[in-house]
UniProtKB/TrEMBL annotation:
Gene3D superfamilies: 1.20.120.1150. Keywords: Cytoplasm, Isomerase, Rotamase. It comes from the Eukaryota. PPIases accelerate the folding of proteins. It catalyzes the cis-trans isomerization of proline imidic peptide bonds in oligopeptides. The keyword Transferase does not apply. It catalyses: [protein]-peptidylproline (omega=180) = [protein]-peptidylproline (omega=0). Belongs to the PTPA-type PPIase family. This is Serine/threonine-protein phosphatase 2A activator. One of its GO terms (cellular component) is cytoplasm. It is an enzyme of class 5 (isomerase). Residues 1-13, 20-30, 49-61 have a biased composition (Pro residues). Its EC number is 5.2.1.8.
């Protein structure tokens, strides 16, 4: 074209009125004015080159262990609001009992939502939750291998848990067609229950031997249910209640709290993971894909506390396989993530969307406080879980004040 040519451009032919679809090799042409889901435009009624919508493919996540309960996404809205509005629980000192204390067999007291409301207005629940917060704070910024006070009681409890692990090796699973709930677990559970009282007497002083009537039920409820062959956050809460009872008796002191997490709870977690894998325990009332984990909650609280103010590891670091491989032995949260990835197949965001969402939280302090609130709402305020919880003289039903205990 001559740059000095000032003649008008040639007249363009008007576009043809016929609508000819593009060849199959070309992608369909999209238009902002056509929002179609069929081969006919819903706005103008004319034909469109949009292909019919393809149905969504099923998720690739196929769980190894089928969750007992899946909460649909829309039902989580009210729960999420309840968690947001819940104040962050604060640590409390555990009041110890007097020498004249009379122990009693603990019983179930929760049957309805009204009972939950009464419990959460009491000092009993506030102090129990405050004990969990104090345990969480005791491990803050500490690695699991850091030196800590190892009392004779802590050593005895670790030895008891190790004995229970040995029981598993001595009671192998039996061959059976059922995928879940190996019947050998009942044999293991019977042996654990039969030895429970003698376990307590290993560390109780003579003047507290009568406490076994109250301690044994919490202890034997800490490792799953032998009838259903399942395990869940309610059993985990019972183990923490057993530790709380020991604190109420002065058997466990505040100076032991770090060891209670880094030694005792770590050993308990080792035991429970082995029970879950060897005997294929069903998740008890699990939220499945909409929960943190099929079985556990508390190690995520304690583990997030460990990582508060860590210079390098952030919540998003759980997606770094090198970090998981090299540091899961030292940090409980990373250990939990590694275990979840080991037993569940598929994309992490699909089989553990809540944990994936938490990885986007900016810091571990927010993760820890959020999980504490979530534990209160999702575990301690749920009738299906707390209806199995026991109350006696150490964890008193509906106590308005500890002053008279």
């Amino acid at each position: 074209m001559d740059p000095h040519d000032t003649s008008p451009p040639p007249k363009q032919e008007p576009p043809s009125s016929s609508t000819t679809p593009p060849p199959l090799s070309q992608p369909p042409i999209t238009s902002p004015h056509h929002h179609c889901t069929t081969t006919t435009c819903i706005n103008c009624g004319g034909p469109t080159t949009f292909p019919p919508p393809t149905p969504p493919e099923p998720p690739t996540y196929i769980p190894i262990r089928m969750p007992a309960l899946n909460l649909p996404p829309n039902s989580a809205t009210n729960t999420q609001q309840a968690i947001i509005l819940t104040p962050v629980p604060q640590s409390q000192r555990v009041p110890t009992i007097s020498l004249s204390h009379i122990f009693q067999t603990p019983t179930k007291r929760i049957h309805s939502k009204n009972d939950i409301v009464r419990l959460h207005s009491s000092d009993t629940l506030k102090n129990f939750l405050g004990f969990i917060v104090a345990l969480s704070e005791s491990i803050r910024t500490h690695k699991l291998s850091d030196p800590c006070n190892l009392s004779s009681t802590v050593d005895s409890i670790i030895s008891i848990l190790q004995t229970l692990i040995q029981f598993i090796d001595e009671i192998p699973p039996i061959p059976q067609s059922s995928r879940y709930g190996n019947l050998s677990y009942r044999t293991w559970h019977d042996r654990m229950t039969g030895n429970a009282e003698s376990f307590m007497l290993q560390f109780l002083p003579p003047d507290l031997h009568s406490a076994t009537i109250e301690l044994v039920p919490y202890f034997t409820d800490s490792f799953g249910n032998s009838s259903r062959i399942d395990y869940g956050t309610g059993h985990e809460t019972n183990f923490t209640a057993w530790l709380y009872c020991l604190a109420r008796m002065g058997i466990i002191k505040e100076g032991d709290y770090q060891a209670v997490i880094s030694r005792v709870f770590v050993k308990y977690l080792e035991l429970m993971r082995k029970l879950q894998l060897v005997y294929c325990l069903e998740p008890a009332g699990s939220h499945g894909v909409w929960g943190l984990d099929d079985y556990h909650f508390l190690p995520f609280i304690f583990g997030s506390s460990q990582l508060i103010d860590h210079k390098y590891m952030k919540p998003k670091s759980i997606h770094n396989e090198d970090i998981l491989e090299n540091f899961s032995d030292e940090f409980m949260y990373l250990s939990c993530i590694e275990f979840v990835k080991k037993v569940k197949k598929g994309l992490f965001a699909e089989h553990s969307p809540l944990l994936d969402d938490i990885s986007g939280v900016p810091n571990w302090n927010k993760v820890n406080s959020g999980l504490l609130k979530m534990y209160k709402v999702e575990v301690l305020e749920k009738v299906p879980i707390m209806q199995h919880f026991l109350f006696g003289s150490l964890i008193k039903w509906y106590s308005l004040s500890f002053s008279h205990i």
